[in-house]
Specification:
mainly beta, 1 helix, globular
């Protein structure tokens, strides 16, 4: 297991639980909490409509979704719009191992976001790890994000709370975790013991 923890601050709305609406132009899907022209109002809505190789570009705003985001389309880039500092926040309805962002497709990039994982219930009784971001696939890049948990620096009440996890799988390889600030978690970056591919943590 590799652990890394760096401390930083975070800034703080739109609910991110439905398909929203929006148009795709040249492989770019725009998410705008204010409902801009030809844009999706939710990140999940844009991801559900993204195709292989598309970019989901997120404008300023705080986007919330109790279920978290699951990325299942290959080679998708989820990133902040130029000059924007969007926040995606997940707060499950009950104690759960749900990650704020669950990457399940190869070739995905997540960058430039504030990703908040807020505790739900008593996680001390939860047998599964909870994560800010979990990676289950290959050729993935997670870079330049603020991944923020709500664990107090003076508290150990949550002992299964990881900022970024690369999950064990014999087929997973080439994962880059670069320049992410990850305060507020019990553990920073976790690479599970049976992981056999290349992982770069910077």
């Amino acid at each position: 297991i590799i652990s890394l923890l760096r401390i930083n601050e975070v800034e703080v709305s739109s609910s991110d639980s439905d398909d929203g609406s929006g148009d795709e132009s040249d492989g770019v899907l725009t998410v705008d909490a204010d409902g801009g022209a030809d844009s999706y109002e939710t990140v999940s809505g844009a991801l559900q409509n993204a195709e292989d190789g598309d970019t989901v570009r997120v404008e300023n705003g705080t986007y919330t979704n109790a279920a978290g985001l699951t990325i299942t389309t290959a080679n998708v880039t989820l990133t902040a719009a130029e000059g924007a500092s969007p926040t995606f926040s997940t707060s499950p309805d009950s104690a759960s191992g749900t990650a704020a962002i669950d990457i399940q497709a190869d070739g995905v990039t997540v960058s430039g976001l504030t990703v908040e994982r807020v505790a739900a219930g008593d996680r001390a009784t939860d047998s599964r790890h909870a994560q800010g971001i979990i990676v289950r696939s290959s050729n993935v890049t997670v870079e330049n994000n603020d991944v923020v948990g709500d664990l107090s620096a003076t508290s150990n009440e949550f002992d299964l709370f990881d900022a970024i996890t690369v999950i064990d799988a014999s087929t997973v390889e080439n994962v880059d975790v670069v320049n992410n600030d990850i305060p507020g978690f019990d553990t920073g970056i976790v690479v599970t013991t049976s992981y056999v591919g290349d992982v770069c943590v910077v």
